[in-house]
Amino acid sequence: MTKYAANTFAMWAILCISGVLGALLVYRMADRVAPWTFVVDVPQTPVRGDLKLQSEVITPANEPDFVHGASIIETPAGLLAFWYRAVYEGANNAELMSSRFDGQHWSPTTVVTNSKTVARDVGLTVKSLANPVPFRRSPNEIWLFFAASRLSGWATCEIMMMRSLDNGRTWGPAQRLYMSPFLNMSHLTKALPVRLSGDRIALPAYHEMVTKFPVMFILNKDGRIIDRLRMGHGGKVGLQPSIIPTGPKTAIAFVRRLKHVRTHRILISHTNDAGRTWTVPKPTSFPNPGGPISAIRYDGTRILFAFNDDPEEERNIKLAFSNLDGTNLRRIGTIAQMKNDDLDDAVAYPFLLESEAGQFDVVFSRPRKVIGHVRISSAWLEHNSEMSAAQK
Asked: What CATH number is given for 39-391 in this structure?
């Protein structure tokens, strides 16, 4: 076979494979035409609790490996935290780890799964794992979404899911979520899913390969993807969206800026049609060094979010309030900070949760060896918000 013939054959083979994968994706999204709206959960947040922050380190003091991408969920037995661990970021045979919090102490860490087990579950080569995100499906069932890199680098990731029917004590095998006809690669997780009508959920995600942009996936009640919605009107517009519904058809997304853009600010995007279309992300007045923002609904008029309050480095993690359209942002206070201006002690990747009415928890990483936890009361939030307003 001549070189020209070989190249022609390879091109047609790629086109055929892409066509088959595209047809499979269309088939799996067959019921996407049914309309949906956001399920709007407006917390009734009482002012309660201590004016002091409660802080702990989750990982063991002698942790030898790189740890990152922490998240948490509330269970009947207390908080359950997840993160990923590897010899270095993106290394072979990474592990997803977990630990439980009884209100005073974190339990010894346990392995949820690892790259080799996931590879065996799905029948594919899996190099590394990242960014576990839990979602409560029912009183006893938790879905755990995470990114699995197939080759080298996060741009080759696809999103996997595991299920637990006993609040995270045991887990079923990993399964693939079919998201793209291009070898199903280049999507990652970071933020909390959002409930939709019809027993569906919206999974915030982002695309990494070549062009980086935020995406919202629609999953049915069985966890099958039925639609894929690109956020931000195309282009390189940011990543890791944190979506907060503000009405049945309206929502705001806090978006991490791309490292190379000139505007080192938190970006905000809006939807008025339940996520089918999103505005181009616009910069706010708050800085962003290129790290994620974790946001939740606080009450009837406010959104609470955690972010790095520095345009260049992940020097600190602060909490802030936003109104529902993102036009009025107010800092509340610092909950974690770099020690001695040491860039190797950066505080990164906050993940925020309201674990009880008036009680909030944030987990984060000090890159390299530590996953940290801070518990905050609504009394602390309101007190510091009032002080911030008075200083203005």
From this structure: 2.120.10.10
